[in-house]
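User: Predict the full complex structure for these chains.
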Amino acid sequence: MLTLQCPYCGARVEETELAPGGEAHLKRFGPGSSDADFESYMFARKNPKGVHFERWRHAYGCGKWFLAARCTATLEVFGTYPAQTTEPPADLIAKIKEKRPTWEGYK
Amino acid sequence: MRRYSMFAVAREAARFHAGWERAWRSPEPKKRYDVIVVGAGGHGLATAYYLGKVHGITNVAVIEKGWLGGGNTGRNTTIIRSNYLQDPSAAIYDKALKLYEDLSQDLNYNVMFSPRGLLMLAQSEHEIRGYKRTVYANNLQGVETRWIEPAEVKDLVPILNIEGPRYPVLGALLQERGGTARHDAVAWGYARGCSNMGMDIIQQCEVTGVRTEGGRVVGVDTTKGAIDCGKLAIVVAGHSSVLAEMAGFRLPIESMALQAWVSEPIKPTIDVVVMANLVHGYMSQSDKGELVIGGGTDGFNNYTQRGSWHHVEETTRALVETFPIISRLKMLRQWGGIVDMTGDRSPIISKTPVENIFVDCGWGTGGFKAIPGSGWAMAELVAKGEPGPLAADFGLNRFREGRFIDESVAAGVAH
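Assistant: Here is the predicted structure of the two-chain assembly.
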């Protein structure tokens, strides 16, 4: 069972208390953007086998969205962080690189 | 290859069954093939089979990182049906069902197709309207389904609690031609057919890279060395995004875990397939007597082939309410597969940004029933380089153009 720590209320909670929200850090494209950009924002996903940055909502807790780094091949959770950012924090990336030396990094 | 028949059984019985040969060869890879199919599951093998049988292309290799039929083909609940709302879906799933009907004869391999009938229970006013609409659509599409009232449902499935308490059964959509088949036999039968046409099925051979030159595929790197190819068919379900990444493009797919489980074997109890989509569980009985049960997918990206405990609990809880007599049964085993989910819950059978690479993926939670139709349509696409009528609507371009084949809304659940 997946357990994540909500970065807002600090509680360690298991997945039935959370709502998954898919890939994090998507660059948004709206009206006026090209079809290719809109398609890549709306549909195309990295869906990696390995390190994945994703959105979660503490649905049955504080109700806030937060972000998590997790390995989709092992379900290991590297860490969680608040959603008010456009890219993962540097210390989290360093921590993942330490644990996954062959990981190519956030891109 | 020797044909299987009653005479073969009698002949072998007379000589202590010493003369049976292996159903397919396990060769080392050649230097080059006209077509490489990645993934020796049902869809990949069916693609190769119809490439040879319908299009006469037999210089084909099917390569598989694990063992044949060991992915989702061996991990589903074996349900076969074609009662889809949208015309393109009904066309391809019904093609699959029609091929299933005489697949055992075609392959000379008993796939144990059992058209025992399939019920989709309506347990809310909304579902009554939804399934009646599907019945009308199916009748226009030439797919025989009908609406039945609660009394007939109870007649077909005596163990069903139609009075509720929470979700009374208000009627059902019945597809009498639907049913189940032996999942392993489908993969094994196709593999034997492919091997018999001279195709190479190479197991324990993982693709580690896709080689392209000038925007065109020239081969793959594998754990058994580099293999050149003219065309590449990627038919790998849950790992489609991983292969696409190797080839340099992205797919509108997310991989998630879907589980199924079986009870201990009991005497014959239920002789149709029952799907209760409102409470999200489905159940049938296997030939061994186990009740085969499935539910919904997990909500997060996952490649581990194991799912979350709470889904087992939720689905079992729902089915115990629907079929009270199963409450004392023990669960025998549980397993998970990685399904490739698209946004509109419809598959992708398509050309890709790389020339001569084709993908057949996105079957999500409903791939087993589609195996023959998917293989048929994919073989046509690979052989001709352009999709035929069955695959035309399932291209990758539908996402850019907004032409979704929206089965997620039609079914109300992943399916």
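The two ends of chain B are 38 Å apart (CA to CA).
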